[in-house]
Amino acid sequence: MKKFLSFCLALMMVCCLCLSSLTAGAVSFTPGFDVHSAAGLVINLDTGEVIYQKNADTQYMPGSLVQIMAAVIVLENCQNLSTSITADPALYESLKTTEYPEDVRYADIVGGDMLSVEELLYAMMLTSSCEAATMLANQFGNGSIQAFVDMMNAKADALGCTQTHFTNVTGLYDVSQKTTANDMALITQYALDQGIFQTIATAATFKPSTPNMDRHDDDWMWTHSNLMMDQTSSYYMEGARGIKTANLSMQGRNIITMASRDGNNFLVILLAAPFNNEDDRLEYYHMDDAKALFDWVFAHFSYRTILSDNTELGQVSVRNGNGVDYVLVRPDRSFGTLWYDSADINSVVQEVELRDNVSAPVKKGQQLGTVTLKFSGEDITTIDLVATSSVELSKFKYYMALIRHFPKTSWVTYAVILSILLGLIYIALCIYAHIRFLQRRKGIQPVHLQPNSAAVRKEAREAERKARQKRNSQNNKK
């Protein structure tokens, strides 16, 4: 039941992220400086808007960024964060023989240490502790680290991470373990809403309080690997918080971090920043990039209204309207977004599409079209256009339209076709009947009637007598 609820929550989160991407600006801007990291993403956490992106869909190895997903799985499956887990070095003994030992991160956890789930989460998120990650995976994978990794992949699929695949929980080098900046954005934004994840991932330090402190010095404490929170570091930036760093010798440095200023909250994701500069000197380019991007968005972006909901964007013809034959349209909502101060807001293009064949009645607020806002060829958003007023139906115009339209209706067409067919059938039947009549007529012989009564014979004799008298009379004259 708990897994089902978790899946539902993940699905809701994905829907929210999708909705934010539909309503928020989809245009990204380019800063006036080079970003050394191979891939990058800047997102406003308040609106979901993507401010900047670079190779955001290109796959790279995540390194210990995988532990963000590991923390999510633990938080969703742990009923009591105070549950103690005893360290067993046998679980992470293989770390000593890994191909790239310099990539392994430890939190000085020794065999027999009893640490709570919460403490192990701090160790993992602040120091990228491979011991803590392995212990948690074994605990919540029911004795199978692979089963835990499978849970991580299932969650990634549920969140819509189409280009992410996990193979371990430590983040150590594996060419099959891949992700993208966009996928890590989905995972991180989801994680920030899970339990105490944000509290843990943005803590500067944490001191465990285990019952066996005699194994460690009194100053045993974990410090977040993100130097942007360290006030003694040259990388310190006020307002920067957590979340996770990662180093891979064969790829470079990764970082996911957030910062807040003046009520605005931003998330920066950077992958595969080089270790060294052109002179082969060690550099922390991932933090240089993060600081520069944060300074850029805080200094140059402000909330601007791109389109007001009282802007009239055209008119739609209306048939059979009472006194009017059109209605004006406007956006059904205002649209505002974070806007780069160097980008001309007047360059935003409005592509309006209006409906045809609109008939009265029309209600105020009825959807009659859309407007798509574009900048530099990129879609920002699409907004419905609605009627600014109502248009009543004119019954006189309506009935007149029906009369005019009646000859064009399909019923009239069908009636004409049927009449023609019946007429043709009638003509064919008449022709056939006439031909049959002529055929019968040609086949009848003359019939001579024979007298068959005394009256008829008497009449015949009288006629013959008169005929003889007439002939005799003519002969006598001669």
CATH class of the largest domain: Alpha Beta
- Percent helix: 25-40%
Q: Stretches where pLDDT falls below 50 for ≥5 residues?
A: 1-25, 445-449
Using the alpha-carbon principal axes, give the shape. Answer: elongated
Total domains? 2
Based on secondary structure, the structural category is alpha+beta
User: Sheet with the most strands?
Assistant: 6 strands, mixed
Q: How much β-strand is present in the residues?
A: 15-25%
Counted beta strands: 17
Mean pLDDT: 88
| Individual helix count | 11
Radius of gyration: 46 Å
The CATH topology name of the largest domain reads Beta-lactamase
Q: What order do the helices and strands follow?
A: HEEHEEHHHHHEEEEEHEEEEEEEEHHH
Name given to the CATH architecture of the largest domain? 3-Layer(aba) Sandwich
Distance between the termini: 143 Å
Strand order in the largest sheet: 14-16-17-12-11-15
CATH superfamily grouping of the largest domain:
DD-peptidase/beta-lactamase superfamily
Description:
By secondary structure, the chain is α+β, with helices and mostly antiparallel strands. It folds into 2 domains: 2-301, DD-peptidase/beta-lactamase superfamily (Beta-lactamase, 3-Layer(aba) Sandwich); 308-397, Sandwich (Peptidoglycan synthesis regulatory factor (PBP3), Domain 2). 36% of the residues lie in helices and 21% in strands. It has 11 helices and 17 strands. α2 (66-77) packs parallel to α4 and α3 (117-127) packs across α4 (130-140). The longest helix is centred in the C-terminal third of the chain and has 33 residues, at 410-442. Mean pLDDT is 88; it is low at 1-25 and 445-449.
